[in-house]
Automatic annotation (TrEMBL):
The gene is HADHB. It is an enzyme of class 2 (transferase). Its EC number is 2.3.1.155, 2.3.1.16. Mitochondrial trifunctional enzyme catalyzes the last three of the four reactions of the mitochondrial beta-oxidation pathway. The mitochondrial beta-oxidation pathway is the major energy-producing process in tissues and is performed through four consecutive reactions breaking down fatty acids into acetyl-CoA. Among the enzymes involved in this pathway, the trifunctional enzyme exhibits specificity for long-chain fatty acids. It catalyses: butanoyl-CoA + acetyl-CoA = 3-oxohexanoyl-CoA + CoA; tetradecanoyl-CoA + acetyl-CoA = 3-oxohexadecanoyl-CoA + CoA; decanoyl-CoA + acetyl-CoA = 3-oxododecanoyl-CoA + CoA; an acyl-CoA + acetyl-CoA = a 3-oxoacyl-CoA + CoA. Belongs to the thiolase-like superfamily. Thiolase family. Pathway: Lipid metabolism; fatty acid beta-oxidation. Residues 330-470 form the Thiolase C-terminal domain. GO terms for molecular function: acetyl-CoA C-acetyltransferase activity; acetyl-CoA C-myristoyltransferase activity; lncRNA binding. Residues 53-323 form the Thiolase N-terminal domain. This is Trifunctional enzyme subunit beta, mitochondrial.
Amino acid sequence: MTSMLTCSARTLPAISPWAARLAVRSLSCSPQLQTAAQPKTKKTLAKNGVKNIVVVDGVRIPFLQSGTSYADLMPHDLARAALKGLLNRTDVPKDVVDYIVFGTVIQEVKTSNVAREAALGAGFSDKTPAHTVTMACISSNQAMTTGVGLIASGQMDAVVAGGVELMSDVPIRHSRKMRKTMLGLTRAKSLGQRLSLISRIRPDYFAPELPAVAEFSTSETMGHSADRLAAAFAISRLEQDEYALRSHSLAKKAQDEGLLTDLVSFKVPGRDTVVRDNGVRPSSMEQMGRLKAAFVKPYGTVTAANSSFLTDGASAVLLMSEEKALAMGYKPKAYLRDFVYVSQDPKDQLLLGPTYATPKVLERAGLTMADIDVFEFHEAFAGQILANMKAMDSDWFAQNYMGRKSKVGAPPLEKFNNWGGSLSLGHPFGATGCRLVMTAAHRLKKEGGQYGLVAACAAGGQGHAMIVERYPQ
């Protein structure tokens, strides 16, 4: 790759007040982890009087582009497959699980509590409570931290957390006028009343209401926000395409080397068994450069190639108190340590959650950026990732927008999303958080690191960050 993904830094023309003050940081082009790093000897983040919460293990079914092999299924089918995969992977007795919580974003109205329906379908006892949470792209993050809270408070010893999204089949409603008419028909007491209601129907009543990936408060799609953010931080189209190509290239390498061990195969009824993510598509800069702007036309820089795609998928993790896990003979994958949630302006700062969450979670844990061995950030758009890196590396932004004395610093690229990310592996809105955590845990083990930092932005101007600590070998 060329341009910004080189070992030298250069400055782009300033095209906004932010960009005029933000230095362009150098992105390393070092080979990605040719050899495993030596194990670190840092102190543990265990705290006296606080339960250690561990991830015993976690799985996900392959993340697929919407409209492909999962197109004829329902969300609970995918969530059920993830739960069954987790049961097979861990051999945990179903009656040991005290609680189940799943995240999702665009709910299927027939299974509004998809956690409960999936749990019943996977064979869990009908005595095992389950509920569903929604927090946009950090829904399964919220599911996991809900589980952490239940265990830390002593209410539970073992919780399954996960997430699911099926973008192949989203609810499409009648217009509000038609809905009111149809509800009126159910209450009509006579033929005359029914005919009167029917006579009021006009052609525009039949226009459907499609779900939009847009902010309710601003009516702006996330793609438009990403384009404005890229412009504000002077992120060029070339830089975004180069970062997207990096994501796909690293994901393909991870696939080929068998590193994505959280994957479990899924036999789709009436179709073949799905064994890998199907959105990984290494291309060339020339091919990517031919694509037109997807949102701000014709001069925008966000395209289909440097954006995450609509994805179907599900994930699940088994969380336990360390005491319970060891008593059952498990060797956990990682500790889940400090975490934070943040919120900011949903218009101009919609996608800057990682910038705001990262310094807060590091302070809670008593760590610095230099202590982090593995970074796993959600990639909504290439421009969003690069803008966050610039914001995190800017004293001016920290002082003027975050009320902080100095910048937290940007993650070194050689530690960042080294097995691909949402741009390449896919982004089922409700399921990505669990993938981030499991990837961090597996990378820590393979690379000999101790601390991982997971972060993500979400609709509504919200964000999340969490510290993952490798379990001692």
